[in-house]
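Two proteins follow. First one:
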Amino acid sequence: MSFRTRELSVLSEFDLRGGGLAALRSRVDWRGGLIKAIAATAADLVGTAARKSLIGVGVMHRSSSARERDSRLTLLEACEQGEDDEILTMLDEAGKPSFINQTDPEGWSAIMFACDNGHYETVRLLIERGAAVNQRSRLGTTALMIACSAGFEEIARLLIENGADVRLCAQSGWTALMEACSGGYLSTARMLLEHGAPAAQSSVHGDTALMRACMRGDVALVKLLCSYGARRDAVDRHGNTAVDAARTFAQRPEPADKQHREIAAWLERTRHWVTPLHHLEVLTAARATALLEAELLELVVARWRALPTEAAV
């Protein structure tokens, strides 16, 4: 299920039933998480496909701005399909900078559609022409979250290099890092963390990136997150921690449960590890060196401050 389909499902629940976020909340728990909750919501929404079809072909009430609306939808469709030549033509003919950042009724912009479908060159083109990389949809989604949800690391890197904020979160509290961890994209998660993504961030329901990694049984991802300060004691709205998630999944009779048992045991064994240097096995050489230099400098300064005033002078 693409990010676009997931978000349409949530919005349909919200628009057609009223207060749909409350209905969705009843589906969300730490065992299934947001992704499965959205998938379940999508399954019983009869009107979603019809609504999306109407939006896609541009069937709208005609008005004085109907031509502009049709052009906007055509731009979004071209970005969804990666038709770069057509996109350039439309942008040149539009003649106004704001055209590139106009959205569909769900708040999705051209760059979001390009990210959802993995069109790197289209994303690069849109950025060069002034697309807003931190623009949000109705649910607070950004292009970076969309790219990370599918593991499009090069697109995510391009967005970050051009000002995408790794710390932004959607209305649900979910971040680009949570999306990457939910998909098991280790290298994408590492890149986000290296650029300052908060490993300890919690969603409105208490979900964390570490919990997502534990549920997946991804040992390397769990260790990486812990090396960046992920909170092992964080609890979701049911009072469960990442260790609880790993233990629960470890009880299932499936091959992947070996990894869940390993994660639960490792989290317990290393629960007193409080600094990144405890996690040398997952640190890059550059990061380990930088951390050691910082620790050494801090130690020297502390020792100098402890000296008597005369000796210090």
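Second one, unrelated to the first:
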Amino acid sequence: MDSLGLTSIFLACVDAGSFSGAGRRLNLSRSSVGKAVARLETQMSVRLFHRTTRSQSLTEDGQLYYDHARRAMSELEAARNALASGRREPSGTLRVSAPLTLGRHVIAPLIVRLAATYPQLKVSMSFADRPVDLIDEGYDLTVRIGPTTDSSSIAGRRIGRQSMKICGAPSYLARRGKPEAYGDLEAHELLLYGRAGAARGWGLPGGQQQVQILRSVGRVRFDDLDALADAAAAGFGLARLPSWLVKSRIEAGELVEVLPQDDRSTYDIMLLWPKGPQMALRVRRAIDLLAAEMPAALR
């Protein structure tokens, strides 16, 4: 058996969680599976699994090989699908990560549209308000808001800009008054976004193009922007939220914008992907769609 066949058995072992489970999937005996994995380890001069009588787990080398082999197998599957179909269209699985609220409201509908256009395309999408490791976690694309860390192994492009609006419910403004300057905010109840128990302050324009960070001891804090918008609409205080998220609420009269923001209160939205000698067609189509549609979706 060649290296490709041995690698397929190795991947099945990881996916099934055991040699016996892989054997059932592949219609092989547990002994045959074990011998195939041992042969692969000999060929590469590394140990891929920690083995005990009751369990198995990947070694560090095994995890590294699995991540790269899984991506390579996905590319081979896409190539076979393209040749078999007789036409050049995206196929295989597109793996995307995006921030929770932006992903749910803006990114996901566009990716679903892409999948509807190409029947051979599969999509696996994850939402998380944390920076993901594209390569280690096996993503084709990730969307990030704000500055990114440069890396020689990551490519990217800006696909839009997110502007922020400070807003509150008419009932709150009637009760507490409408702030006329940034300094007035210190006397208001601010609804804050935060993760892991730490609230994130508001970055507001200051003098001479500087940005001041405003924090307040608010009674309401969330790690979800939809919940912040709901709390603001319920009259609990002022919230600083993306314009695309509150646009419909402002138009419906649920929220009122105060203290219009300027260009210093906008953030780049970046699309990142692993560098490689050749880009999969499904990734290229996703990049093109997001770059074309995001600016309008963010207004």
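SUMMARY FIELD: The chain has three domains: 3-64, 81-161+267-297, 162-264. The chain has a mean pLDDT of 85.
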